[in-house]
């Protein structure tokens, strides 16, 4: 195809609306006319283009807004009207990949013959256009299907439904982004409906905060002109009156909302909020399969944000002997802005405390500990250390326990028993004891350390969920609460942290809550701890356990 001056002069929107066709909701092929949501996205992209910047946008979608349709159209226009353009489209599953490829093919077939480039090849997933100066191509791929994009260079890249990509999606996306030069005439579009607090949410948050070059684009359901029906005069509910005032809705929009809840969302208002969010916060809050009540957790985080920040720092200590290091003789808390210890309430005399500790294990980056006031269940301190070796954590844990009135410490022993052994070597006076059955002697034995297994794991999770529902004001540590938000049911129904997220603080909190039965519940002058000390050698040698 010979490109005329007229063709070159066509801007992207004019090309799309004059020459491309889409399939409407009645399955008819009609001219592509941008709707309000698509116009919103187009304005953002056009602004970046006018500023001479690479086009970068992240799109948080509600249902049926047409963002993918517009993105494919822009990619098609750029690729099918000039030589040497390589465009990549990556969907979350094979069926979606096929749909996006068919959309690109439909655009090609809808072009007038004099505008249509020669099709050099068309296979199941790629269109290759033949120009005199070189080929251009649109390649459709599926995330998780091999090392996609590693050997490619793209001028345009469409990341579709990123929140629903496989667990290693962050690694896949990183590889794909390297394939797009940081040049003005390139485009990267990341779009997805929300799926909880995952990597897509992280990129979105950074875009909103201006911490990356992606422009955040969201269109609420009430911004879509089609989402309205004739109003019959029904009385509004209290909820409807609230959202009507909050978003300046019309009665016609509320009529459609009622219809959609009843017919498309099985009468479930919460499902409507997930599928048709009114704001970005609602989109993420209502999506995914969270274990905890995320609405309540988010409200608590917002509440804590208005409170005084915790003291942060670490313990300084001295050894009784610098060579043997067999006993910590003195310790003191030193405030530091970047300290790994957060203090919400300092210890009170004679008050009983418990500490749960989660050790670094398979796939973990952090050691964590949580301190609970055993009278009330209130969380009063958190220790969080990203280190490779357990001893510095254990020394801080020792000082933390001593500071909090010789608190009962329960260390998880599944992957790393070294902290338990080190606390014993330092003669820490009070560790959690569990009973185990010895098949050889057919007797119960006492062993130090908390064991998380197939029986105890569901138990502590269930109790933590109940604690949050019953009185979330007992929780003060925002990092712990954030781990609750990213703790979800996986595809097999197992509660776990989202890929790339952590649960160290959450498990230390759950362990602390579970061991409270071995600590007194009221304030009293403590007994001499030395009398209760049992040398580690007298404990069972086998501290091996099963992983989570």
Topology record:
Blueprint: H1 5-9, H2 12-19, E1 21-23, E2 29-31, H3 36-50, E3 55-61, H4 67-80, E4 86-91, H5 94-110, E5 118-122, E6 126-131, E7 134-142, E8 156-160, H6 169-177, E9 187-193, H7 199-208, E10 215-218, H8 238-247, H9 251-263, H10 269-275, H11 280-286, H12 294-304, E11 311-319, E12 328-335, E13 341-343, E14 353-358, E15 367-373, E16 379-385, H13 390-403, E17 408-411, H14 418-425, E18 433-438, E19 443-448, H15 456-470, H16 478-485, E20 487-489, E21 495-497, H17 504-514
Parallel strand pairs: 3-9, 3-10, 4-7, 4-8, 8-9, 14-17
Antiparallel strand pairs: 1-2, 5-6, 6-7, 11-12, 11-13, 13-16, 14-15, 15-16, 18-19, 20-21
Q: Mind explaining what this structure looks like?
A:
This protein has 548 residues and is an alpha/beta fold. It has 3 domains: 5-17 and 40-219, P-loop containing nucleotide triphosphate hydrolases (Rossmann fold, 3-Layer(aba) Sandwich), CATH 3.40.50.300; 223-288, no CATH class; 311-520, Nucleotidyltransferase, domain 5. It has helices at 5-9, 12-19, 36-50, 67-80, 94-110, 169-177, 199-208, 238-247, 251-263, 269-275, 280-286, 294-304, 390-403, 418-425, 456-470, 478-485, 504-514; strands spanning 21-23, 29-31, 55-61, 86-91, 118-122, 126-131, 134-142, 156-160, 187-193, 215-218, 311-319, 328-335, 341-343, 353-358, 367-373, 379-385, 408-411, 433-438, 443-448, 487-489, 495-497. Strands 5-6-7-4-8-9-3-10 form an 8-stranded mixed sheet, sandwiched between helices. Strands 12-11-13-16-15-14-17 form a 7-stranded mixed sheet. A hairpin with a 3-residue loop joins strand 5 (118-122) and strand 6 (126-131). Helix 2 crosses helix 4 and helix 13 (390-403) packs across helix 14 (418-425). The chain is elongated and about 90 Å long. The relative contact order is 0.09. This is Terminase large subunit. It comes from Christensenella minuta. InterPro entries: P-loop_NTPase (IPR027417).
